[in-house]
Each structure stands twice: as structure tokens, then as C-alpha cells.
Specification:
- The protein is of the alpha/beta class and about 260 residues long.
- The chain is about 30% helix and about 25% strand.
- A 7-stranded mixed sheet has the order 5-4-3-10-11-13-12, sandwiched between helices. A 4-stranded mixed sheet has the order 6-9-7-8.
- The longest helix is centred in the N-terminal third of the chain and has 12 residues.
- The radius of gyration is 19 Å and the shape is globular.
Length: about 260
């Protein structure tokens, strides 16, 4: 490890005492120390970590990887707590599943739920499958992206793993990422209603909530979605205009609960 790498990691620890204090309070001393060790590690190494309330360990990349930020948002800032109680959901689609931590969160919260986890990046999906292996009888994974139509897309890697984006291939590109539609993913999960559609797809919501969304939106009961900019907000809320729902948000993450057709006045 180079001196610059060591200095960067030490700076990360020393400049985030508030975040560390919150981890300590919420997850305990053992987990806090483990997170520091992992953060001081390397991105190309996989670390095993046990977290409170989950029966099985999870696996994360160390160093500058964004995996620990996902864990922090899930457990410390309670990113999905405001989704509320969904009762007894049967089918959840996790679009932009990353390494599978959000899927594990819902699998443990709702023991009867089945999840379809979708992630386009091959390396990240490998780790997602490793994390979800203990829940294999309740999980279907799909390495690919959610889009308005089936086909091939191109992947644009981001600075961090959670920044990866997909787009339509440009002239001369064949595309390497399989695209799937929401109806296809519903079929992959066994059919029926989608009790929760979770989407964190880095702008792909512009395509997902195009005109064809009206074909499948009546099958979706609840949505939690991160919207990436004004264009995505306009597209999403235009698609939701024919429906009534209870809306809440935390920053740019929106929850739409109890979606039903809007009553005619």
C-alpha cells in the first residue's frame, strides 16, 4: 500500500468522527471497529461482516468502495424506514440491487416475501449473489438493467460502484447489458402484483416510466424510488398522474404507498 493510499484512508477516518459516532451508537463497538478495519483495507478484497438483527454475515468490498456507504445508509440513516409497514408483501422487485443489502433488509423484514434483484454490473452482481445465497429459495437474480423494452444496453461505469449507469448503445456499439422490462421481471418473480417496486437506477427511470409504464403500473402497489434530477422527476410524476397514492420523501428518495387508480370527479 502506497503512502498516499495510507494517508487518504487515515484522513477518511479522522474527518468523519460524527459518522463513526453514529455507527457506534446504532451498531455497537464490534461492528464499528470492523467497519474501520474494512475501510482501511483494499477495494479488491472481500470482507465478511456481521451486522445486528441479520442471521447471516454479509460481504463487502473494502477501501474506497461504496459498499460501506450503502450499509451506513441502510442501518445508520434508516434510508428505507420511511417506506413503512407493507403488511405481508409477496413480491418485491429490487432494481439497482447493488451488492444485495437492500434485498437482505426486506427479506429479513418480510419472511414471506420473494425478491427479484436486478443489477447490471457483473462484478457487483457476483457479490450480490454471494450475499443472497443464503436466501436462494426466495430470491431470483437478474444481471441486467430495467428498461422500457428488451434488448441490449451499454454500461457507463461511475466513480463509485453505485454510480454505474446504463444507456442505449451509440452507433457502432452492440451493447453488453441485457435489458428487461417490468412485466418480464414480474413473470420472473412468479407473476401477480408487485407489493414493492424499489428503484435506484441512476437515471434509467426516465425510460422505465415512459408511455408503456401504464401497461404495468396497475400491478404495482407501492414504489420507493430515487429520482436523479428534474427530468426524471417530471417523467415519474407524469406517469403517476392517473393514480392516487400517499407520497413522502427524504431528499430525492420518494415513497408512493397504496397506489390505486385516481377516482373520477
Amino acid at each position: 500500500m502506497s503512502w498516499n493510499s495510507i494517508r487518504w484512508r487515515v484522513k477518511w477516518i479522522l474527518t468523519r468522527p460524527r459518522a463513526l459516532a453514529r455507527v457506534w451508537r446504532r451498531l455497537g463497538t464490534r461492528v464499528a471497529i470492523a467497519l474501520i478495519r474494512i475501510r482501511l483495507g483494499t477495494r479488491d478484497k472481500i470482507y465478511e461482516l456481521r451486522v445486528p438483527r441479520w442471521p447471516h454475515p454479509v460481504y463487502v468490498r473494502g477501501g474506497s468502495s461504496s459498499d460501506l456507504f450503502v450499509l451506513y445508509e441502510l442501518f445508520v440513516t434508516d434510508e428505507y424506514e420511511h417506506v413503512g409497514d407493507l403488511g405481508s408483501p409477496k413480491l418485491i422487485i429490487d432494481g439497482g440491487a447493488n451488492i444485495g443489502l437492500v434485498s437482505i433488509y426486506f427479506l429479513n423484514l418480510y419472511p414471506a416475501a420473494r425478491i427479484v434483484a436486478v443489477e447490471p454490473d457483473a462484478e457487483t452482481m457476483d457479490l450480490c449473489r454471494k450475499n443472497l445465497a443464503r436466501y436462494a429459495d426466495r430470491v431470483t437474480t437478474f444481471q441486467g438493467a430495467i428498461w422500457s423494452c428488451a434488448g441490449k444496453l451499454s454500461l457507463e461505469p461511475g466513480i463509485q460502484e453505485w454510480d454505474n449507469k446504463v444507456r442505449s448503445p451509440r452507433d457502432g456499439e452492440s451493447g453488453s447489458i441485457e435489458a428487461s422490462t417490468i412485466p418480464s421481471l414480474i413473470s420472473l418473480g412468479g407473476g401477480g402484483a408487485v407489493d414493492l417496486l424499489k428503484l435506484d437506477v441512476e437515471g434509467a427511470e426516465r425510460e422505465i416510466f415512459g408511455p408503456d409504464a401504464q401497461d404495468w403500473l396497475p400491478s404495482v402497489n407501492n414504489i420507493v424510488i430515487e429520482l436523479h434530477g428534474p427530468d426524471c422527476e417530471d417523467r415519474f410524476f407524469s406517469a403517476m398522474a392517473p393514480y392516487e397514492y400517499e407520497k413522502s420523501n427524504r431528499d430525492n428518495v420518494y415513497v408512493c404507498r397504496s397506489i390505486r387508480p385516481r377516482r373520477r370527479s
